[in-house]
Design brief:
The protein is mainly alpha-helical. 45% of the residues lie in helices and 6% in strands. Helix 3 packs across helix 5, helix 6 runs parallel beside helix 7 and helix 7 runs parallel beside helix 8. InterPro entries: LRR_dom_sf.
């Protein structure tokens, strides 16, 4: 009888009961699985990995790209040190609201063309751009009337440009007798950055910061988080010093795409304890040498062509066979012209 009850219990309850310890071990936190990349991200990654092969035809290829894909390709080109005037202008889209060309070879010419195309820009990062001067920044301010955030500095040349640009960022007023220019309309401001509110320049020195803040209180330089909440309550995300503007456009793309050239995106370096107020002597000599080298490049090319022509003439005078061939070719051309 007892043996029959035991068999009945085994049949009705086939699942053995686990002890509490084993159940706790098995009920751990769920394993988070990484989301597979989308097909679009994979395609953009392939394009970015072979970007140098299509740069010559990029303008025709990128015509059909959506604005976010163009931004992603530009971000990959910047990380691979392939971003220059031709590349960024070929990818430019009128709907862009941010522009990150930091550490690139874009110059004033390319930046001004960009500003003419992308007139809705709200944030621009030109940090570590040694080829951009006051002329390029002035072109951006002239075309982009919605610009709120400007990021600059990061290298001696860019710091020098940022220092020279402070004068054009300050507004000049029609009504100089008013109580405060903060309450004036944009029509009463004849020059300066009308809409600029945030300037990110980590290496600005203390005296320059105090003078600029006093003369232009509307623009906040290097915004900091609230001491109570440690959050950026007022500054937009584009004005945070540790944020890379184009990071959101490549977050789903494999980093190996731009590791081809061994480059990783760099953040703006922290302020130095003793910032330099001007370029060093060595940097001035380097820039002067580059300027002279670029100025003399056409002359050097002309001299090379002249030497080639002289060598050909000398060969004709010294080599009888070459001279005979040259005279024969001239004679054949003259006969053909007569007929």
């Amino acid at each position: 009888m007892e043996e029959g009850k035991a068999k009945f219990a085994a049949v009705t309850d086939p699942v053995p009961k686990l002890d509490s310890a084993s159940s706790l071990r098995s009920s751990g936190p769920p394993v988070k699985r990484s989301k597979p990349p989308s097909l679009v991200s994979l395609c953009v990654g392939v394009v970015g990995k072979h970007l140098e092969d299509i740069i010559t035809d990029l303008e025709e290829i990128a015509v059909t790209f959506p604005a976010d894909i163009k931004m992603a390709v530009a971000a990959i080109a910047r990380r691979r040190r392939l971003l220059d005037n031709n590349v960024i202008v070929s990818l430019a889209d009128g709907s862009w609201e941010i522009l990150d060309i930091s550490g690139s070879n874009v110059s004033d010419v390319g930046l001004i063309k960009l500003a003419g195309i992308c007139r809705s820009l709200r944030a621009v990062d030109i940090s570590r751009c040694a080829n951009i001067t006051v002329a390029g920044v002035s072109g951006v301010l002239q075309h982009c009337h919605s610009l709120e955030t400007l990021r600059c500095g990061g290298c001696p040349r860019s710091d020098y440009t940022a220092r020279c640009c402070l004068g054009i960022l300050k507004p000049k007023l029609h009504d100089v007798d008013g109580d405060s220019w903060e309450e004036l309309d944009a029509a009463e401001i004849i020059d300066g950055a009308h809409s600029l509110r945030w300037l990110v320049w980590p290496r600005i020195d203390k005296n320059t910061l105090e003078d600029f803040s006093a003369e232009c209180p509307r623009i906040t330089v290097n915004p900091k988080p609230s001491p109570f909440t440690q959050r950026w309550t007022q500054a937009p995300r584009e004005a945070w010093p540790d944020v890379i503007l184009d990071e959101t456009f490549v977050k789903d793309i494999d980093p190996e795409t731009w590791a081809v050239s061994g480059l990783r995106p760099r953040r703006i370096s922290a302020p130095l304890s003793s910032p330099t107020s001007e370029l060093s002597v060595a940097e001035k000599f380097r820039l002067a040498f580059l300027e002279r080298d670029n100025r003399l490049a056409p002359k050097r090319a002309k001299n090379v062509r002249q030497r080639q022509r002289r060598a050909e003439k000398e060969l004709m005078t010294m080599d009888t066979r070459a001279k005979a061939l040259a005279l024969a070719s001239k004679l054949s051309r003259s006969l053909n012209n007569r007929h």
